[in-house]
Each structure stands twice: as structure tokens, then as C-alpha cells.
């Protein structure tokens, strides 16, 4: 079992004036997971989610190759998990003209670690629009989530949907676009990610779940960007929604247990012995 490897932080254009800020981390033995944020650079630039502390300096550098700090008007925080909110205070400090789009509950949960400047906040709940100058950004909760404060963001101008942790997928190696994956890797990754994020999938009523997934699918999404997925577009958007719709009928994922950990540690010890192969 190799040590995790963090991959480069870089901006990647995915639609008009819309950029993924992409990095990732290897997660043996299942492969690699992307860790992304989003920038919409329109008339009133928006940063969607604030990255993880592990790559704070690199993440801020990448963000500010796309937009000037003083130009940022909005920071949309999908929820308070560390890979989404980890650089929030640093970003607020760097962007003095930005208003934080968040929720009452998220601020309360973050209060365990820091005080969010309430005077710079605007509460935006599920289904609420925000006028950002040349477009309206709509808060839309995704079907799969692991945090009760989660809200996604839909931009009708580009038909880009920030799906947060919905459509999370492991990949065999770092990729930016889902069409770089084979059919099996895409399908298996979607089903693994969905079960990892939402182990409650087995408790769902299929009829109610169909309505939940369909409400987001029917927005007319053309491009999906999410924290832990390569960009999804074209026919794979419909496929991703359909795989998510099937989650209630999928067997739970078998979690790694102590037997797995013992095996990994034994392998690591054997590789560390003098003269042992290092591949």
C-alpha cells in the first residue's frame, strides 16, 4: 500500500467564464479521487467552495490566476466539510469585497472551529436564486450528500451544475473529463462514490428517490462539476443521473476492516525491509 500522493492544483476551463480548480489525492487501494472547486468569472465573480487546508497556498495561487482577489463578489459555500470550507477564512481575508453565501446551520457547525464574520454573510437556502450581475445562480440541493447543510449551485446561463458530493467517483488515475474513463470505470466509480457518500441509500423508498433525482435532472443540466468527480457532460450526464437513481437497489459497499489494514501494514513492512523491491 503506497503512501497517498497529492496531485497538482490547477485551473481548468469547463464552460464560458467557468473554471474548475482541480487537484486530487490517491486513495489506495481504490485509485484516485478528484478534489475540486469552481470559479464563475462573470460580471460579479463567484468562487464555489474553498478547498482543503492541505493545499491552501497552491489552491489560492490557482484561484487567483483566474480572478483578481478584489474582483471576487461572492463565495458560495456548499457545506462546512473540510474539503469544501477548509480555506474559507483565508479566502475571505484575501477577497475583501466578497459576500459569503451560506446557511445559518453551516455557520453554527463551523463555530466549533472558527467564527465566521456574520456581517459578510447572506443566507441562501435550497431553491433560492442569487443575482450575480450577468446571471442568476440558483441554490439546488443535490440528491446525494453527506452533510445536512449541503446545497449545490446551478447556473442556467451555462447549464453548469455544481453537484457538490453527488457523482463522486474514484478513477484509476487523475482525469479531468469523465469521457477519459472507460464505460466500466465510469459506472463502477459512480456506484462506489454514491455508496461511500450516502451509506443511507439502502433505506430509501425508490418512488420518493426517483422524484428527488428527477427534480435535479430536469433542470436541464448540460455540464456537471463536482468536488469529487471529473467533469461530466454529453450522454454521461443522463447516465450519471440514472446510476444515482438506482442506488436504493444496490448492495451496500463492503467497508475495509481490520483484516485489510493488517494486510496493508504487513505489505508496507515487507517493502521497507532492506533489499525488498520498491515497485
TrEMBL record:
Protein name: Metallo-beta-lactamase domain-containing protein
Limits of the Metallo-beta-lactamase domain: 34-201
SUPFAM superfamilies on file: Metallo-hydrolase/oxidoreductase
InterPro entries xrefs: Metallo-B-lactamas (IPR001279), ODP_dom (IPR045761), RibonucZ/Hydroxyglut_hydro (IPR036866)
PANTHER family: ANAEROBIC NITRIC OXIDE REDUCTASE FLAVORUBREDOXIN
